[in-house]
Amino acid sequence: MSQSISGYVFSGGRSSRFGTNKLFHLIDDRPMGLVVYDNLTSAINGNTFFVGPAIDHADFASIPRVVGSREGQGPLGAICDVLETASTDFVVTAPCDTPYFSTQQFTRLTELTDSNSVAVAADINSPHLRHWLLSCWNVPSTRDHMIRAYEEGERAIHKAVVGLAIVDHYFSSLQLTNINSLDDAQ
User: Fold this and answer.
1) Which of 40, 80, 95, 121 could form a disulfide with 134 if both were Cys (CB 3.0 to 4.6 A apart)?
2) Strand extents, DSSP E, the chain
3) Confidence of residue 1 (pLDDT cuts 50, 70, 90)
4) What are the backbone dihedrals phi and psi of residue 162, each rounded to the nearest 5 degrees, phi first?
5) Ramachandran region of residue 153, left (φ > 0), alpha (ψ -120 to 50) or beta?
6) What digits encode the pLDDT tens for the residues 84-99?
């Protein structure tokens, strides 16, 4: 991909099923949020940000954050904040609880993106299961559409994207695993 690209790790959830802030849960002795951040940053060679509330933790002190006007308004609000504030042609998004989505998978997601589409990770075993937060967005062609859908009251990403070109890229269920509970982390 020759255009500019930036990455965003979503960390604004309440971790209610997890019991504690899952951003800091250790995966191979590293905070899960940093695993995702490092994988994404390595794939795009650069500008990666956390999206969500301020993070008071030493490991995260030097990482830039985006706190947009839709803070706390769910995943679609976070996507709109990212699209609205991005100064790059493309943005790659990832939730902080997907540590098994590697640098290679992020690279694949960005390399296969059509210039006028949203590339989204989908489960190879269940192709209808799209992981909307593991995605790559063409900012100029999606920004106005997504913000308009949000402003009209939509809150479901899969409904807000209707009318956009969507390109599915298939990955294994393990690679797409969300760690939503301590059982998932075992």
Assistant:
1) 121
2) 5-10, 26-27, 30-31, 48-51, 65-66, 90-95, 118-123, 126-138, 166-171
3) very low
4) -55, 125
5) left
6) 999 999 999 999 999 9
Kindly tell me if the per-residue pLDDT of 21 is higher than 80: no
Q: How far from chain centre, in Å, is Cα 32?
A: 14
User: Is residue 121 a contact partner of residue 47, using CB atoms and an 8 Å limit?
Assistant: no
Predicted confidence at residue 112, as pLDDT, reads 63
Side-chain half-sphere exposure of 142, counting CA atoms within 13 A: 31
What average pLDDT does range 128-156 have in this prediction?
A: 96
How far apart (Å, rounded) are the C-alpha atoms in residues 104 and 54?
A: 29
Q: Which CATH architecture has domain 5-171?
A: Alpha-Beta Complex (3.90)
Report if pTM > 0.85: yes
Structural element, H or E, at residue 43: helix 32-44
Q: Please say whether the beta carbons of 121 and 60 come within 8 A.
A: no
3-class state of residue 95 by DSSP: strand
Other beta carbons within 10 Å of 136 = 26
> Per-domain residue ranges for the chain?
5-171
